[in-house]
Amino acid sequence: MDDPAQSTLEFPCEFPLKVIGKHENDFEALALGIIRRHVPDLNPDTIRRRTSSGGKYLSVTVVFTAQSRAQVDALYIDLSREKRVLWIL
């Protein structure tokens, strides 16, 4: 049986993505580098950064136009392979 969550997205669609890791000097560049491999036309105006209240974590949020389920899946796989990425939302 198909996953109901997969059937709710119609492509292309606006897709928000949040990547969280330890707040280290190059975490943002690392996350954006991975994202840009899959979304080369990422609009810089959609990038948001937020440091946790204790300063330990950094979240990088982007909104992009996802073209297909395969694009989103490949992006999640690449991000999840990076040890420094702790959460992907």
Explain how this protein is built.
The chain has 89 residues and is α+β, with helices and mostly antiparallel strands. Helix content is 33%, strand content 31%. It is built from 3 helices and 4 strands, in the order αβαββαβ. The protein has a 4-stranded antiparallel sheet with strand order 2-3-1-4, covered by helices on one side. Strand 2 and strand 3 form a beta hairpin. Helix 2 (27-38) packs antiparallel against helix 3 (69-81). The longest helix has 13 residues, at 69-81. It is globular. 16% of the residues are buried. The mean pLDDT is 93.
Q: How would you describe this structure in keywords?
A:
3 helices; globular; 89 residues; 33% helix; four-stranded antiparallel sheet; alpha+beta
Please sum up the structure shown:
The protein is an alpha+beta fold and 89 residues long. The chain contains three helices and four strands.
Spatial sequence of strands, sheet with the most strands: 2-3-1-4
Mean pLDDT: 93
Kindly state the percentage of residues in helix. 25-40%
Q: Quick one: biggest sheet?
A: 4 strands, antiparallel
The counted number of beta strands is: 4
What is the count of helical runs?
3
Structural class: alpha+beta
Identify low-pLDDT runs. none
* Integer-rounded radius of gyration: 14 Å
Determine the N-to-C terminus distance.
24 Å
Task: Return the string of H and E elements.
Answer: HEHEEHE
Overall shape: it is: globular
Question: How much strand?
Answer: 25-35%
Detail the topology: elements first, then pairings.
Elements: H1 4-7, E1 13-22, H2 27-38, E2 48-51, E3 57-66, H3 69-81, E4 85-88
Antiparallel strand pairs: 1-3, 1-4, 2-3
Helix pairs in contact: 2-3
